[in-house]
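Figure 3 (text version): structure tokens given as input.
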């Protein structure tokens, strides 16, 4: 099965090992892709685990009426395996009750103790 993050790889060689905790995301982009996959597969627990503790909500409820269908990475700044921070701009496509939609965001990520986490994001409108 192809990975929901639309990288072109299979789930088992892309986001699957990151979501299961077998490997840590080596870059901010890879964490972004894994978080998109978590939204697409309804894995709220992973989303909370990969969220920086200073901005993480106490709980997260995913909307069952939204089906995430595609992720386009638009731009990146830093976020490599040896960086401490990174930014990923993306557009995520979805269907809500059959109607198509998309959202754009510039997400900030931090790398601490060799682990990337999602810090926050600003919607591009």
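Below: residues designed for each position.
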């Amino acid at each position: 099965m192809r990975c929901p993050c639309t990288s072109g790889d299979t789930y088992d060689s892309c986001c699957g090992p990151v979501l299961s905790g077998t490997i840590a995301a080596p870059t901010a982009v890879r964490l972004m892709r894994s978080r998109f996959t978590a939204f697409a597969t309804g894995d709220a627990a992973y989303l909370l685990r990969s969220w920086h503790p200073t901005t993480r909500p106490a709980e997260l409820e995913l909307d069952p009426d939204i089906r995430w269908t595609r992720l386009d990475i638009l731009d990146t700044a830093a976020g490599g395996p040896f960086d401490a921070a990174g930014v990923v701009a993306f557009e995520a496509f979805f269907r809500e009750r059959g109607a198509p939609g998309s959202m754009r965001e510039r997400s900030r990520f931090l790398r601490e103790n060799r682990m990337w986490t999602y810090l926050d994001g600003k919607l591009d409108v």
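The longest strand covers residues 99-112.
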